[in-house]
C-alpha cells in the first residue's frame, strides 16, 4: 500500500492523548427552527479545548461516524457530528451552511470548547461541504475533506462548486482521497490541488493508492485497513497542528 503526500507540515500522533475518557451522547442542534439529530462526544475534562464539526457522508450518520466522533474525543477534541440529513436526504447548500453556522453557535455555548480553535471535517458529500464552507466560514481554523467533490455545483440547490471559493480560502485544508475513487475521480482532486497551489493556499494532499470512494468505512463501521487507520492519524495530526 502506497501513500503519496504533498504537505506543509505533519506531526507524530501523540498516543498519550488517546486514553482520555469521552462522553458521547445524542444531541439536537436547532437551525431555522428545526432540531437536527446529531451526536457529540467530549473528553471528560472541563477545561477549554479544540473542537471539530463533522459532516457525515450521503449515507447518513452511520455507526462508524459515531465511533469516529468518540475516537476524536479520546484524542482531545470536542467533536460534533451534525445530522444534516435529518429532514431531507439532499438539502440545499444554504440549508447545510446555516446548520454548520448553528453548530458553531452550539459549540460556543459549551464551557469545554475553545471557540477560537474549531475545525471542520466531512466525508463524501460532507467532504464537498468542507471544501465549500471552509473558505466562507472564517470561524474555522482548519479543515479535512475526505473524498469530496470540488467541481460539484451548478444547480438550484448547489449553485456554486467549491472551486469557486478557492480565492477566499485562508484556513489550511487537508484533502484525503483514493486513487480508485469512481464517484470522485482522483484527477479532479489533483486539478483542485493544482488550483490551490497556484493561488498559494495552505493545503496538504494525502492520496491512498488503490483505495475506492468512502474507504474510511466498511459496512457502516470503521474499516480495519491501513488506509483507514493512517488517514485517521493524518487527520488528527493535522488538527493538532492547526487547532491551537
Write the SSE topology.
Blueprint: E1 3-6, E2 22-31, E3 34-43, E4 49-55, H1 63-74, E5 78-82, H2 93-108, E6 113-123, H3 125-133, E7 140-146, E8 173-178, H4 186-198, E9 203-208, E10 217-218, E11 221-222, H5 226-242
Parallel strand pairs: 4-5, 4-6, 6-7, 7-8, 8-9
Antiparallel strand pairs: 1-9, 2-3, 3-5, 10-11
Describe the structure.
This protein is an alpha/beta fold. The strands form two sheets. The protein has a nine-stranded mixed β-sheet with strand order 1-9-8-7-6-4-5-3-2, sandwiched between helices. Strands 10-11 form a two-stranded antiparallel sheet. It starts with a strand and ends with a helix.
| Shape call | globular
Number of strands: 11
Structural category: alpha/beta
Chain-averaged pLDDT: 92
Helix content: 25-40%
End-to-end separation: 32 Å
What order do the helices and strands follow?
EEEEHEHEHEEHEEEH
Q: Roughly how many Å is the radius of gyration? A: 16 Å
Strand content: 25-35%
Number of helices: 5
Largest sheet: 9 strands, mixed
Strand order of the largest sheet: 1-9-8-7-6-4-5-3-2
Uncertain stretches of 5 or more adjacent residues: 1-19
